[in-house]
Batch of 4 targets.
Target 1
Amino acid sequence: MALVVEGTRIGGELRSTLLSDVMPGEVLIRTIFVGLCTTDREIFNGTLRRFSAGKNHILPGHETVGQVVRKGCGTDGINIGDFVVPTVRRGCDECVNCAEGRSDFCSTGKFTERGIIKEDGFMCSYFKEEPKNLVVIPAELYEYAVFLEPMSIVQKAFSEAANAQKNRIPTRDTESNVFKKCLIAGCGTIGLMAAYYMNINKIAFTGIDTASEGSLKAKQIRSLGGEYIAVQQREDSGKPANLNVNEKFDLIIEAGGSAPLSFALLDKLLPNGILVLLGLPGEEKELTIPGNRLCNSFVMNNNMIIGAVNANRSHFMKALEVLQKISEQHGNLFLNLITHRFPFQQFETALKVSGENRVKVVLEMQKAKGAAPC
Ligand SMILES: [Zn+2]
Ligand SMILES: [Zn+2]
């Protein structure tokens, strides 16, 4: 059974699709969990439609964990019963970055993304994939693995900023001294992954979000040793947001997807500080900024803005190490981030879950076989 979003109607429908047998170089994977995020909601509500040429539909789902059930020849290194997480982006076969396994830096723009851009995703009972696009997960971590894709985004954000900082200031040479104080703007799944990342790497951090002081997001931030500041959601006035944050930071990770927020964050950078933008604000809107003041401040303080999208397999591998440490140090606290679970058939209800205590909504596709209980 697969879930297909048609281009001609809003919403999805359940369909049965017959898969051909596995070909050499492929493995067949039984889907266990699929996580939902804003991208999926945009695909379902019709605001994000990137179908391949000649098609008017896509199978959504890009955050998943599954179990290998069949192997084609030439798939050494991966075994039947292995838990696996697929990466999302597939390279263009034209540019040097894609050829070197850095499709996250594809320079032609002709890449595809499973479940998002032109290529079917994982909201189905079984899918096929090549081992080079899979990360094998230790069995005891399979329930954590639905967070591997969002954690890979945070890993890339941090790596990009840390590499830049180490080049500019060589005395900042280790993961834990490269940044002293981080601001996480937006505490949804990505923001909370960043909070765990900072906790594991012993970097002080503050989280801001519109969720209330008593929300799950606020509690998670505080229990990881961070400060939480609830910022008010104001009418979009076409100006940078007015943030009630007094401190300044040498790393800011923006995960709110709001241009008024992003431009307000420029004022919160310390000298030599770096702002990493991860959110996509979507529809076109005008914004008036104090341009001269921001330019002056940016130049005088050696500030840097980095935009970061997607993540490659090396980020997934590093993110897996982070999840391993989280499971050792935080166990169930982390799994509380799965706030809602639904069987696959209830995908429409799952997509409608909202409110400040929603973090990760997971579709339970099928039970894992022979897995250690989490
Ligand atoms: Zn996502
Ligand atoms: Zn490319």
Note: The chain has a mean pLDDT of 92.
Target 2
Amino acid sequence: VLTQEQIDFFHANGYLIMRKMIRGAELEMLREQASVVQSQGVAKQGDRHLYKPGNNGEKVYWRSERMWSRGDIFQAVTVNPDILENIGQCVGEPFVPVNDSLVVKLAHEGVPVPWHQDPPYGFPEVIDTFPIPNFTTDIYLDHSGTDNGCVWAIPGRHLVGHVDFSTRSDEEMFARFGAVPVEMEPGDVLFHCISTPHGSRPNKSPLQRRIFYVHYMSVSTLADMRVKKKDESWGSIGPSLIPSMLEARRKFQWELPTDRATLDITDQEFRFTAQPVTPANHWAELIAGIPAETKARLKKI
Ligand SMILES: O=C(O)CCC(=O)C(=O)O
């Protein structure tokens, strides 16, 4: 479980690093199975692999979607009890897994990810941050540092909606405005708010770097998304897999989240039931407490 200090850091900065959360056989199997998917992606076998143009215009593999359909390990890790506890503490509401992907920076040719906020915050019309904490859970499979194109983030801007950095080059974003490199090791986990500006440099080193991204969302945010998208089944794959995720953990004989007194786990949703936890309306209060001049300053880089 997270300390109050860690929870406060998350809400103040818009990200949180948790060391050595995935360990032993679970980490080894995750790394092995990710390598299988990566080999298929590089060989252009199978579907839902994504590529970006490399330096010579060639297609460089960088990502695979729907990992839950590619192996039990990806489902089992998604209901790791330590991860679920920490997410529940930061969301402060019932939540579900919604979607997942593997992001790969190949050795020597890994492509950069331009600075951005995750959808929908890239759109200028999103003037405010939605009042429920919303972040991705990034499970690191390899060392990720400034040497091999780690993610960088600009802390403290996640509560002001869209941030305009359209006049800034990527190099300026890395060099100025308080960007921090998020340096991680295998088994470490990062929460990064979808509204936190972030980006990463190319990987020119001999060390590849991979992250298993899972987006868990509060049940209330998911319901809101379905209304906004006018699609009642939006984001339903993850929640529908909860029973099979629990079964995958059972099969590997790993600790189940249902065995933790701190968690309320059903086939529909997860909830953290102990302390410390994010209080109801916390982001709404934090957002309301930002003076207008401060907000205007934070919204422009
Ligand atoms: O892993 C990275 O370099 C960043 C990926 C990312 O920001 C994203 O997929 O939104």
Note: The chain has a mean pLDDT of 97.
Target 3
Amino acid sequence: MKVFLRDIPPDGLELARHITASDIDLPQDNFTVASPIELVVFLNKVGDEVIGHVEAKGKYIFNCARCLEQTEQVRDDKFEFFVDIDPTTEFVELTSEIREELIIALSSVVLCQKDCRGMCPRCGMNLNKEKCVCK
Ligand SMILES: [Zn+2]
Ligand SMILES: [Zn+2]
């Protein structure tokens, strides 16, 4: 996703895209992207920087951090990035900026429900579903 600086008007540029994980090489280690991510990027040239405001709406499948059950989450992540530019800069490459920020946003701990009871440390039973007999 390359944006040429000459295409960014003084009052900013808004871009809307649907992207998949592979479009931006998003590693899916602790989650799976379940639908295309709706991306809205607003770019602004301010002095010798380009400031990007990003909103990323998507549906993801995580493993619950406590009980390890798969859980689907619809998220609306908002973040900003800054790219330094100099007189020789012709364009900014958004892909890596968006990837890095999304990785940070999506590395947060996810639970299947707020009060997930987790797994019994002894028998491994999912305590949301059943009660085990361990003491
Ligand atoms: Zn859970
Ligand atoms: Zn148990």
Note: The chain has a mean pLDDT of 94.
Target 4
Amino acid sequence: MSASAAVRWGVIGHDDVVTSLATAVAAGRVSHSYLITGPQGVGRTALALGLARALNCEAEPANRPCNSCDACRRISRGSHPDVLLVDMAWQEEMIEKPRRGTAQSRRSLSIDTVRFLRQDIATRPMHGRWKLHIVDDASRFSNEAPDAFLKTLEEPPPYAVIVLIASSLDDVSETIRSRCRHIAMGTVSSDIIRATLAARGVDEAQATQLARAARGRIAWALNMANDARMLAARREQIELAFEQVTTPLGRVSISGVIARDASRKRDALLESLSYWTGLWRDALLLRAGLADDVVYPEVADRLAHFARDHDISDLYRALWATQRCVSDLNANVQARIALHAMVMQWPG
Ligand SMILES: [Zn+2]
């Protein structure tokens, strides 16, 4: 496949994945259910939308997706009637609000959403040849939802393609997994990310820094580079996380106010945990003299100073405890307990 075709799909750094999907589309070997796995921000949604455009594009087969026909443009704008991108925001807007008058903030994709999808997929596409449901992400299905979804996966109408997105295979129940064609998207190398950013006019220092911080998530890097407010917010977050990790007062706030608000602000907590994990990893690298590989060069000097006072084994234990906290939270251990246990393992 030519490089321009990969570009037309709007997916950067996953040429092999795009090639095999494009080949399948061209040969008419389209699966009715796909499961795309990979870390958030590597381009999973971009791939799903590329597939949607390739399937419903109105141009000659060899030029699909053309990105300029009505179908391609509608899909890119999110206004194609046969291509549905279902996520938590969609659920709030389309299912929760009309039903209850207000949006309820849920943490999972509800049985009501699955019922809606089941009915919608049973109706033929309005404009396109194919009807696509893209679910981002499938790990958010509530407990009873996958079973309700199975029938659709087992007997999809001939025009239907369901694309499930998840971080890893473990996030999706075996029954769903076994009925989907699996597409694994790895992370994108930081060289490709840096080159992509540079090609879009991001200055070199910034591109290098973002490429490193992205840890393979190219969509994340592109979003960051385009948004000065997100960049500023990120810098603030790093400073805050640095205080939390390295000062007694910061740790008190983790055991106190952060633990108290954990259930209301779960996403914010998980984000903080990813900063803390990154900082402890950086501390280890700096202690080992590997300054080039740090993810947060913004605070590297101060972090190196902090790390110098601690044994490598202490830093390693702190990193391990922080990762452990994430898995505890995912296993529904009480946040107060998980956070306290984590902080107790952090060296003073
Ligand atoms: Zn097109």
Note: The two ends are 55 Å apart (CA to CA).
